[in-house]
Automatic annotation (TrEMBL):
The keyword Ribosomal protein does not apply. This is Cadmium resistance protein CadD, predicted permease. It comes from Micromonospora auratinigra. Pfam families: Cad. The keyword Signal does not apply. Keywords: Membrane, Transmembrane, Transmembrane helix. The chain crosses the membrane at residues 6-32, 44-67, 73-90, 102-124, 136-157, 169-192. It comes from the Bacteria.
Length: 200
């Protein structure tokens, strides 16, 4: 029993450390859902599960030696949230409410994958060392924590102060959050110096 609790605690710690920023992204999705109806809450939850599932699957495959993760090229996925944010900024005026930056399950999954591409580098060495039974515990913990993350984000997205803030400045704040997330991915991944080297 002690081993099981230790395994679950380790999985929870790794998930929380690698997905803390997802709370912000999910909150933005839920705020947009309340204001515009897009993406629908069930699409947000399903998209988050699909995105995290894809990241974990890629890490498991890489850990088995069947896939080489092209680090830091995964940082190019940061272009997705940047493009979504810029598109929303250009499409909205100051009189509009918060825009639906992403309107579908696949859009949510895409942003989740882009935002978590660097997680694979953390997951691969961990999954390499796990026995199948231990790996199953990790997957169950990850699944439970995705549900917790979505619940927390839905509560934050419905909080009166958050709603008032987004009503006032949501027309630029929501897209700006996506641009900032994408820029952070691009900068921290190390892909920009690699691109600069190729271009010179």
């Amino acid at each position: 029993m002690t081993d099981l609790l230790a395994t679950a605690a380790g999985a929870a710690l790794v998930f929380a450390a690698t997905n803390l920023d997802d709370i912000v992204v999910l909150t933005v999705f839920f705020v947009a859902a309340r204001a515009t109806g897009r993406p629908r809450p069930r699409d947000i939850v399903a998209g988050q599960y699909l995105g995290i599932g894809a990241l974990v699957a890629a890490a498991v495959v890489a850990a088995a030696g069947l896939l080489v993760v092209p680090d830091p090229w995964t940082g190019l996925l940061g272009l997705l949230p940047v493009a979504l944010g810029v598109r929303a900024l250009l499409a909205r005026s100051a009189d509009d409410g918060p825009p639906a930056v992403v309107g579908s399950l696949l859009g949510v999954a895409g942003v989740t994958i882009a935002n978590g591409a660097d997680n694979v580098a953390v997951y691969v060495p961990v999954f390499r060392t796990l026995e199948p039974a231990t790996g199953l515990v990790w997957l169950l913990v990850f699944g439970a924590l995705v549900a917790l993350w979505c619940t927390v984000a839905a509560l934050l997205g419905g909080h009166p102060r958050v709603v008032r803030l987004v009503d006032r400045v949501g027309h630029w704040l929501v897209p700006a959050v996506f641009v900032a997330i994408g820029a952070t991915i691009l900068v921290t991944s190390g892909v920009l110096p690699r691109l600069a080297t190729l271009l010179t």
